[in-house]
């Protein structure tokens, strides 16, 4: 899991708490700060998810390339084993 997803979750939760306390106490400044922190947290989580998806996609492509290279090597090896056909 990307560190931005973790930081985002923390900011989202802290912002939600700050906003809620501001609502309970009538502190509009705390409400605004909490909302802003929540938005920042949600954006961080989304950015972390994008980075995770890109990393996962790259890993999948790398695995496919390695598998194809292995298959190609096996085909070449099998070709080398085939006896030569000689015609009289």
TrEMBL record:
Coiled-coil region: none
Family: Belongs to the UPF0337 (CsbD) family.
Domain CsbD-like: 4-56
Region entry Disordered, spans: 1-88
Protein name per UniProt: CsbD-like domain-containing protein
The species this protein was found in: Candidatus Sulfuritelmatomonas gaucii
Biased composition (Basic and acidic residues): 52-88
Compositional bias (Polar residues): 26-38
Residues annotated as signal peptide: none
């Amino acid at each position: 899991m990307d560190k931005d997803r973790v930081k985002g979750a923390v900011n989202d939760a802290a912002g939600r708490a700050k906003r809620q306390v501001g609502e309970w106490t009538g502190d509009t400044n705390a409400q605004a700060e909490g909302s802003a922190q929540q938005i920042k947290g949600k954006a961080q989580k989304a950015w972390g998810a994008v980075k995770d998806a890109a990393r996962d996609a790259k890993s999948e492509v790398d695995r496919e390339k390695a598998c194809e290279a292995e298959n190609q090597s096996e085909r070449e090896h099998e070709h080398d084993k085939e006896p030569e056909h000689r015609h009289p």
